[in-house]
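Table S4 entry, Formimidoylglutamate deiminase.
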Amino acid sequence: MDRSLWFEAALLPEGWAHDVRIGVAGGRIVSLEAGVAGIGGDGGGGVALPGVANVHSHAFQRAMAGLTEARGPENQDGADDDFWTWRELMYRFLDRGGPEEIEAITALAFMEMLEGGFTRVAEFHYLHNDPSGAAYADRAEIATRIVAAAQATGIALTMLPVFYAHAGFGGQSPSHGQRRFINDLDGFADLIARCRILTADLPDAVVGVAPHSLRAVSPDELAAMPALAGEGPVHIHVAEQTKEVEDCLAWSGARPVEWLLANAPVDARWCLIHSTHVTETEWRGVVTRGAVVGLCPITEANLGDGVFPAAEFTRAGGRFGIGTDSNVQIGVAEELRMLEYSQRLALRGRAVMADLQRSTGRALFERALAGGAQATGAVSGLSVGASADIVSLDASGVAFAGRSGDAVLDSWIFGAPTGSISSVWRAGGEVVKDGRHIARDAIKARYRNALATVLE
């Protein structure tokens, strides 16, 4: 056995356990005992939680956080800024930033994910071309950089190359701002093959596909995606904005999720990102198919998207995962808090996502854990045979005083300050210690240098 970790308490698949020793070898949990005393040489400490998967990230957007909060000049007459005006700013941001800068920004985002309790990320990767729109000599140049950032930080990677071919429904020609995203099916198949090679030696890596959205792919192109994914997951943006719903209706006579369920083989391999504007018939259709909805509450709030009916959806057996999307803020607790509070505001109630067996925090956490694992092609939980992806809360923190069981999760999500995570182990290796990633200083320095180029 490589090492043993002892914790005051741990959230196991069957519930809370106390005085827990976890044996780790080869990056996996090989033994698990409860009700035992710690011994000299044990690592660990605090309260152990399984690491959560981040189901949706555009890591490069981390560098934009805080730079899009002013009213656009075209809206000084009183018109509202919205997702579409934000998107134009994002396109302009992509005028700069080559492979070195993207790798540095990605590494910072991945580092912060680990510090925030995410141990796996589904990277929705759509920067395939250089800033002019020309293909890199190596089609997988930026994918290589994403893999390097995962290696540098230690996070588990679900790589989702994005297929993006059109500016709007009906096969509209792409705009200048989309030039870094564009691909064709042959080139995309080559990219997927390269991603599989690149990740072959990356522990627990998964490769899937991501047709960007119904507006960016044609029906024929979408039909090709599941086969290209192989055994991996299929992710797609859908119904994020009301304009998207209106445009889809004008194009097809159906709403986006309605069209997708009627025309694509949506099943448990699929993750429908956002799904914000859905009817009851649509979300019940998603439940029936067993797909996961990928919710990104902080980004959805930041962009003014709207609120997905998560409470009704989960009561009907719906599955969700959480993602950080634009990475304006990064953390498991922060996303789950925003999710619950958005439901409370919409429904004017409290403890909306709780059930009769679990508190709000535990219900949120366990649902996000299970949905995230499904959506990223991973296995989650603290159990023998699983990857040793463990998050330890600082049980000595004042926010946890007098708390045990579900109250620990409730206090972490709703009452604890940032930095309540003391350590994170990924595949048995401690990548966060005393609340800081072990390579934080070097990653931050490289990020600062990258921004000097991107923002000059």
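The chain has two domains: 3-49+382-436, 52-376.
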